[in-house]
Amino acid sequence: MSNKPLLNVKDLHISFGQVNSISHAVQGISFKIEKGETVAVVGESGSGKSVTAMALTRLLPESAHCKITGCIQLEEQDTLALEADALREIRGGKIAYIFQEPSTSLNPVYTIGFQIKEALDLHRPEVTDQQAEAERLLDAVGIKDPRQTLNDYPHQLSGGMQQRAMIAMALACQPKLLVADEPTTALDVTIQAQIIELLKKLKSEQEMSIMLITHNFGIVTGFADRVIVMFRGNIVESGPTDEVLKNPQHPYTQALIDCIPKLGKKQDRLTTIDYEKITG
Amino acid sequence: MSRIREVIVAVWDRKSGRALLILLLALYVCAIAAPFIAPYETSTQELGKAFHPPTSLTFSEGRLAVRIYQQTNKDLNLFEPIEGKIAPIHFFSRGYEYKILGILPWDRHLFTVDEAHRIYLLGSDSTGRDVFSRLLYGSQISLSIGLIGISITLFFGFIVGAVAGFYGGKTDFVIMRLVEILMAIPGLYLLLALRSALAPYFSSTKMYLVIVIILALIGWAGTSRMIRGMALSIRNRPFVQASEAMGQSTTVILFRHILPNLSSYLLVAATLSIPGYILGEAALSFLGLGITEPDASWGLMLSQAQEARILMLNFWWMLTPGVAIFITVMAFNLLGDILRDIVDPKFGINKS
Amino acid sequence: MSLLKVENLKVHFPVRTGLLQRVTDHIFAVDGISFEIAQGSCVGLVGESGSGKSTTGKAIIGLNPTTAGSIHYESTNLSGLNTSDFLPFRKKIQMVFQDPFNSLNPRMRVEALIGEPLEIHFPEMSRSARRARVSELLTQVGLSPDSIDRYPHAFSGGQRQRIGIARALAVKPEFLILDEPVSALDVSVQAQIINLLADLKEEFNLTYLFISHDLAVVEHFCDYTLVMNEGKVVEQGETEKVLNQPRDAYTRRLIDAVPSL
After folding, report:
1. Amino acid B349: pLDDT
2. C68-82, pLDDT tens digit by residue?
3. Which distant-in-sequence residues (6+ apart) come within 8 Å of A275 by Cβ?
4. What ipTM describes this predicted complex?
5. C63–B241: do the CB atoms touch at under 8 Å?
6. Beta carbons of C223 and C243 less than 8 angstroms apart
7. E strand or H helix at C207, and its extent?
8. Does pLDDT of B97 surpass 90?
9. Are B299 and B284 in contact (CB under 8 A)?
10. Which chain A residues are within 8 Å of C216, Cβ to Cβ?
11. Which residues contact A131 (CB under 8 A, 6 or more apart)?
């Protein structure tokens, strides 16, 4: 194996809108994700974290007059320079996504099995026994009765089960990088913990990298190897998770950690973020 | 409602949308101003000038004039212009009397020629009536029928649909079954039956209203079903529950919270169903069950074009009502498509 | 005496099937729960989705019909009141909803949104007085009075939730049902809203029923906690006690699932 990172993003700028009303969502960020590494991108809504993830495979809507500059290198390819056909190979093939709302990311009119097989058709045509492979995938994400679930429609599953099915679909293509955009925000706490455990287990089994996008430092601990903190389109801090959590360098990181209510440490008042102090 | 204004501005901002709006506006202005623009009344005959071709225009001594024709073949209704003979066109001149918007009497017209001669911009029909004038008067019927019809449809559709969707349960069940019964009635045959049964009691103009009402009474059932579905989903949105929780009355909830959130949809639905009414009236009049002579409507005028000699002898101007129907229906359909693009959240403008 | 007393409350939803919509089954959303809320307290109602916690909140304010049991507000039984008898209680009890994006009518300006409960409960109030009151409320929830003529889409999630809170406060209620008011917000915004709610409680002497799935927030915010699972209250008591010495297995599972920093 080479020492080259799986993903190397250099000086990425993303802006929306036309001449008179441009908003700069991402303002020149650079980061790397190594093979087999879990990186958490933490920030509030509007910090540019989701936009960055979508830009990796140019998933941003063209109608929004979106402009992306910089360099996104996936292994040896620059995804920003790729043609549409080659890009489709990468979407789902090398980079797979799971989103916040499993109920809206699954097509309600097809069975889970159909949707997994569709993904197999697209990215792994060499698989001959799709039924067996789909069952294996559902089993891998911890669904108890995979054979039955293949014939179920999304609405017949609970939120946690839907998210598991989404993960199975993402895994169907054996991606190199799994982008998880707030995968647990819409779920109950107990289910949240289960999904995080599942992602941890899958990462070690499948040799894939995970890019976890979240607004909550709470789910980062014990899961991500490295943390990238984004604030208003810029990376303000990055480093190994434990170090960042124990000894945050940037005042914003500190504030983001402090504002989370912690069980067993009752405060008189919750700490809020003083933006004026941060932006100076 | 500001939402509707927003949508109209968005239509205006598109080239094709602006063109369609101007076209439709022009059509309606012409319909309203028909008595002023039309040189003759719908019933003004000139039996000697049946199937007169469109008079050609010419300049003489700096004035616009029409050429004068003579009949060259009585059997085939052929006319030839007489060399050198012309009749000048008078603008804003006096003509037959009419009432502006049905109220103020006036006798000025956009253009006329001397009473001894005739101006036929689009030729004349079998009794020498001016097709152009009849087309204008006919547009009053054809264009207003859609608006009146859709208003009735939307009114009943919204009230019934929103009530069913809002209350749900048994109310919804009963209302929707009644609506389904109404939808199962074969509309066209009901219309034919009612029309022939009522014929002796109504004059042609009253019949016009009867037609609209019948068309709308059949049409609202489908609309109400769609509105019911949408009301049902809006009804479960938290802002409606919030309003209920604070003790708001049902009527206010229907009109303040549910209607405005349906307005853009209703606008699209209305635009797309207007052609149905225009074509419905045309079909009935074509079959002789709608507007009757001597009044004019596009469908009725088109029915006169059925005669074999019109095609044989190439009296093409008799088909202009068909062109008018085609243009109007296309304009409404295209406008409806544009509206749908704008209103549909998938196209991104409906960002809330 | 307690402000609100719920006894053996049941909310069952009928499941209808077939052409004639015959009732074939019931969903036992809330299945016999009892609790009391003292004047001036803040009670946390904790549970996962489907536990019946939101249904309980909605039943109290009459958005869901009750199947059995009683809900006493002071000395009046709310269940079984008709619409007009319920109206005065819709002024005393207000609700803040979870989803700040959907709980405000997108077609109404802030003035109309916050003014709506005023219109219902103070119909004699003049237009200008109402506008002044809305401005005052906006300031109280930490928004600029300039925003009075704007539409909801011009605000962020946290700001919308502030509008929702201002609307609930407009008619000077005594009791607020907070249905997951911060679940849809970023953690950083959560803290601001929780602090705001704490301040308002102090200032206007309010009583809260705080529905949430986040134990850490409940620990911080509530003095008394109810844990619901599958339509039943499995454990209740002082927050500290419930969280530190949980007796029920389900409560323990909930506590264990909270990520630790």
Report:
1. 37
2. 999 999 989 998 888
3. none
4. 0.82
5. yes
6. no
7. strand C207-212
8. no
9. yes
10. 260-263
11. A113, A117, A150
